[in-house]
Amino acid sequence: MIQTKNLTKRYGKFTAVDTVNLNIPAGEIYGFLGPNGAGKTSTIMMLLGIVKPTAGEIRLFDEPYSPKRLDLRRRIGVVPEKHPVGMWTWMTAREYLQMFAELFSLQEANKRIDHLMERVGLADVKDKKFSEFSRGMLQKLSIVRALLHDPDILFLDEPISGLDPFGVKQVRDLILEENREGRTIFISSHILSEMEKVCQRVAIIFGGKLMAEDAMGSLLNTLAKDREIHVDLEELPADLAAKVKSLDFVQDAAGEEKTLIVKVPKTGDYRKALSKYLIDQDLVPLSIHEKSLSLEEAFVTINKENINLFAGIGGEK
Fold it and tell me: DSSP readout, 120-154?
């Protein structure tokens, strides 16, 4: 559905996007992550045909893409980070959506509008001037507008920006539901906890380069340097962590209230050996589980490594 080959964007001597290759199949929820200035926005603007690449190729729906391909552009829905109010401040939400429905020559437009407004919790305000909407309401309205013409690809830039927790859940459920119906979804966001809940595959861009890309579980497993086992006990002896550190398979150990936290190598399963050791110490584990690396921790790990790399290069110069 989305392919790029050596996609590059330079502004003068500055390279914002450096030979980025993407291959996103149909029906995937794809997360595009990176800190400010990493190249996310420039990449998205090129994919949408708003900014012309300096070099490289873009294919959408397995066809060469350019802004002139209106037949392909109408198969795309876009939710920007901030909903543009523009010149339409006098319109109600319904009138605003009807305008876009006419542009796409939608049949039964009012039925589609009512259905989508209901799904995002805006049914009661569809006849209210949208210039009076809060930021969160505007964000939901933007999602409705993007879905109005039933696009095959949905681009979301910070889709839950400005939403309260209930609104976040509504949008999360909507993204998953739209994906189940076959829609390909490309999400750029800095709220990593939400990305982890919805994305099937993620890419991390830094300094214009694609630093990592994989299925969510595989990426987290690859980036994890060790494994962390948490053992809940009735009581945590003061000297237990120090004793556990002496075991040959333990890299580190610490106590937190009534929980023993043990770091072990990434390869192998050491829970049985750890349980046996504790039982031999007359301690009975109430529960034992492994803490997984979060997407946020993986993101920080990648960026710290690159910051250190660039700092080292700068020091050599």
Answer: TT-GGGTTSBGGG--HHHHHHHHHHHHHTT--SEE
Question: Residue 12 sits in which domain range?
Answer: 2-221
Strand ranges inside the chain, DSSP E: 2-11, 14-24, 29-33, 55-60, 63-64, 76-79, 153-157, 184-188, 201-206, 209-215, 227-232, 252-256, 259-264, 287-291
CATH assignment at residue 266: 3.30.70.100
* pLDDT tens digits along 105-143: 888 889 999 999 998 889 999 899 888 888 888 888 888
Classify 98 as helix, strand or coil. Answer: helix
Convert the pLDDT of each residue in 207-223 to its tens digit: 898 887 877 666 666 66
Same structural domain, 160 and 232: no
User: Across the strands, what pairs with 76?
Assistant: 153
Tell me the residue type at 33. L
Kindly report the number of other CB atoms within 10 A of residue 257's CB atom: 7
Look at residue 66 and tell me if it is in a domain. Answer: yes
- Is residue 206 located within the same domain as residue 183? yes
d(CA 129, CA 134): 11
What radius of gyration do the chain's Cα atoms show? 24
- Rounded to whole angstroms, the Cα distance separating 53 from 67 reads 12
Are 122 and 251 found together in one domain?
Answer: no
CB 271 within 8 A of CB 288: yes
Domains: count for the chain:
2
Instruction: Indicate if 195 and 282 belong to the same structural domain.
Output: no
Is residue 308 in a domain?
Answer: no
Q: How far apart are CA 215 and CA 202, in angstroms?
A: 6
Alpha carbon distance 185, 174 (integer Å): 11
Q: How would residue 306 be classed by pLDDT, with cut points 50, 70 and 90?
A: low
Q: Is the dihedral of CA 228, 229, 232, 237 positive or negative?
A: negative
